[in-house]
TrEMBL record:
<dbReference type="InterPro" id="IPR002569">
    <property type="entry name" value="Met_Sox_Rdtase_MsrA_dom"/>
</dbReference>
<dbReference type="GO" id="GO:0008113">
    <property type="term" value="F:peptide-methionine (S)-S-oxide reductase activity"/>
</dbReference>
<dbReference type="GO" id="GO:0033744">
    <property type="term" value="F:L-methionine:thioredoxin-disulfide S-oxidoreductase activity"/>
</dbReference>
<feature type="active site">
    <location>
        <position position="11"/>
    </location>
</feature>
<keyword id="KW-0560">Oxidoreductase</keyword>
<dbReference type="InterPro" id="IPR036509">
    <property type="entry name" value="Met_Sox_Rdtase_MsrA_sf"/>
</dbReference>
<dbReference type="Pfam" id="PF01625">
    <property type="entry name" value="PMSR"/>
</dbReference>
<comment type="function">
    <text>Has an important function as a repair enzyme for proteins that have been inactivated by oxidation. Catalyzes the reversible oxidation-reduction of methionine sulfoxide in proteins to methionine.</text>
</comment>
<protein>
    <recommendedName>
        <fullName>Peptide methionine sulfoxide reductase MsrA</fullName>
        <ecNumber>1.8.4.11</ecNumber>
    </recommendedName>
</protein>
<comment type="similarity">
    <text>Belongs to the MsrA Met sulfoxide reductase family.</text>
</comment>
<feature type="domain" description="Peptide methionine sulphoxide reductase MsrA">
    <location>
        <begin position="5"/>
        <end position="155"/>
    </location>
</feature>
């Protein structure tokens, strides 16, 4: 069965790369969601005034990849305690959020967040939002699969964004908590 997943976790290029070649992901686009402005552009969203998040939206085959696994990958690729954006990207448009498309996705999103909160892994509160999905606007063509079109620039951005340092410190601990208390339930 095919379903839709929508995640925001800072610069959409970084989450796009995580999910782009995952078995079961059928179609993936980067774009904008969560705001009220119709047909936003990158310039309007990057101003921080449109209310949109930079996000990814993809179709996945539930029989090939479970939504729980998609959530685990999400949590492993963001800083869930950054209320002002993600890493070097600051602003409302870069906040982390899970946009659920079904009641089951909502339940699993809150469950996964709850597991991380109860683990007391982080000194700061988890600020990742869980919101109903409403509308998605595809970003401009030059943003789609940016990591393939501009591999050197993408790599420089990724390495100097602060993501690598954060992941080196936290990724294995986050994974351990999620594997033990979320994926096994």
């Amino acid at each position: 069965m095919r379903n839709i997943a929508v995640f925001a976790g800072g610069c959409f290029w970084c989450l796009e790369k995580v999910y782009s070649d995952l078995d079961g992901v059928v179609d993936l686009k980067v774009g904008y969601t969560g705001g009220k402005l119709k047909n936003p552009t990158y310039d309007k969203v990057s101003s921080g005034l449109s209310g949109h998040f930079e996000a990814i939206k993809f179709v996945f085959e539930q029989g090939i990849v479970d939504y729980k696994v998609l959530l685990k990958l999400f949590w492993l690729n963001i800083d869930p305690t950054d209320a002002d954006g993600q890493f070097c990207d600051v602003g409302n448009q870069y906040r982390s959020a899970i946009f659920y498309t079904t009641d089951r996705q909502k339940e699993l999103a809150f469950m996964s967040k709850g597991v991380l909160e109860e683990s007391n892994l982080f000194e700061k509160p988890i600020t990742t939002l869980i919101l109903p999905f409403e509308e998605f606007y595809e970003a401009e063509d030059y943003h789609q699969r940016y990591f393939e079109k501009n591999p050197k620039l993408y790599r420089q951005y990724y390495e100097f964004s602060g993501r690598v340092c954060f992941f080196n410190r936290w990724r294995s601990r986050i994974e351990e908590v999620l594997d033990k208390h979320f994926l096994k339930n």
